[in-house]
Amino acid sequence: MGERLAIPTAAERVQRTCALSDSVSRLRYVSGAREAALGRLGIRRVRDLLLHVPHRYLDFTRVTKIAYADVGSDATVVATVDRVNLKRPKPRLQIVELSVVDETGVLVATFFRQPWIAEQVKVGDVVALSGKVTFGYGFRQMKAPFYEVVDSAGQAGGYARVLPVHPVGEGVSASWMRRIVSSALADVGDVADWLPARLSAQRGLMTLGRALRDVHFPPSTAAARQARRRLAYDELLCLQLALLTRRRIELAGVEPTRHVTDGPHQRALLAALPFELTDEQRRAADEILADMSAPHVMNRLLLGDVGTGKTAVAAVALAAAADTGTQAAVMAPTSVLARQYAEKLGPVLDAAHVSWALLTGATPADERTLTEGSVARGETSVVFGTTALLSDDLEFSALTLVVIDEQHRFGVDQRAALRRKGAGADLLAMTATPIPRTLALSLYGDVDLSRIRRRPRAGAGVTTRVISPSSLDLAWGAVRDAVAAGHQAYVICALVDDADDGSALEDVPEPLRSGGSRVRSAVSTLAELRSQVMPDVSSDLLTGRMSAAEKDLAMERFRSGRTQVLVATTVVEVGVDVPNATAMVVLNADRFGLATLHQLRGRVGRGDTSGTVFLCCAAKKESRARERLAALEATSDGFELAELDLRLRHEGEVLGYRQSGGVSLEISDLDADRDLVEAAHVDARAIAEDDPRLAAPDHRALALEVRDRFGAYFDELERA
Fold it and tell me: pLDDT tens-digit profile of 471-485?
């Protein structure tokens, strides 16, 4: 009897699992309009809906009376609406105030730019409000809290004891989202698990079916946390496996080069360096050389804070390629940085008898033709450049080493295109952007990591000060003093010109893109400096919107000292080295991430004179933006700042990337889920080593899940 029952039960579970790929239109309550509304949230299939997890929960087991709600803390209250007031203090600003009462007191809830609330909530309704409690005008208050109308009897008992709050949008309310999710769970919630049972048991994780139920309608907040952890682990494991699959596709059928790592070019280069490598630099170089000489293709990321000497370590790898009789390509994100690499490493390579060339968008046509011919014949060992290196006209004789600086600034397809110019080429990616370990494992889980933490030459140091716009004269005075002393200064702006609306900013926390103080542009700031603030000082402009030739010219004028104040965007963030620069003013500093600000301030105080950086911010002292900037005042440790930035912002914003193939994690929290990141990294490597194609029976469902979640991450490589 038991066996006969098991067959239809298994078949039904398979059917429910297959139904995850069906359109949400198959579900109850999903009409054409509601289907479109869900689509705007990225929910098109049933699986999208079930993985659209709540971003918070209302715990009705912990409802607080108004009089006992602690000011400064989050609270949930259930109270009766006594008054609904719609205000229009400005033509384009509408404010709804709800005054709610219970037997202990009055609370005022304020909603901005949501006039429809005045129509949805009526006097006499009983509402649940959840948010941070403040105090003002004699009453407890909540600004922009989550709200929901409770039943007319004022009882919360009709809801789950822990009420989920899903991300929603126009056309689908929180209550409708719960209703739709509930119907989906009833219809297809009992699905087959794509995770091998041994992994679930090893990591102490819920089954998939239970996790889906408990994440949406948990019996307790503890159950909700455990359910989210299971789904977060799935996401992280699938990402790691996708990265490893991408690596396998990239390297399919290629023969690795076993580089010579103790040859004459390398010995000559080390002798030509104006300093001895530090222990950390030597360790990183040894790790790179060990990979280059091994019978496998190197995939290594070199992490190092500003000024830690990554360039010198990379030079050792370039010399190893020359000793092997092959070629290396160094791709930088900007022509300014590519030229700087050539200027710094060129003389050292010359001394080591390693031929090199520079190729950017500003390279004259006749020089480009000569360089392309020299590279094709194998006469040039090292080529520095920008994405100009990706040109079909540039063909290498024997490219065996690719060095990519600031890898996250290039798309997956761009990195792959360069590596395709040399089948089996070793890859060394470098970044001066401090990246927390968990973020590095998630974004670069298919690479080995080397770190350099300490600077061999710290420079004179930098003092960082946060100021308000009303104190900007102090910053301008410091710039004048620096120029009078024979030094130079940067002024950094978030926008290129006043016509920009801010939507193109790469490192702006999303909530800050609208509202707040006016964002200063580089063009208008330069005009203001020239006409009003310091007309007697030579100033110039540098932005990413300028042509490569214009940027090179502006940078050369500044480097030579002809320009005293350079007004720029974050194009100067990476690698620009002008030791005479000792002052920097960052306008609208709250518009940048901590990693970017740390990179920017690394441009000053690099010589024998200390530098001063002024971060101008209009945000209030108790705001999150000021909290972030205060951290910059308190520490100069880039990795410590990166960890803080990860706690405060989304992982993509920490890096400031907008790239083809960029990763976005929907469920995981890379700060809170550190142990899961490590576990997924270890588990994925073990699976890939044992079953690289995920062809084993207990991996087939997992393979489909990896493809479904992150297939686009390596589709481009397969097409190529």
Answer: 999 999 999 999 999
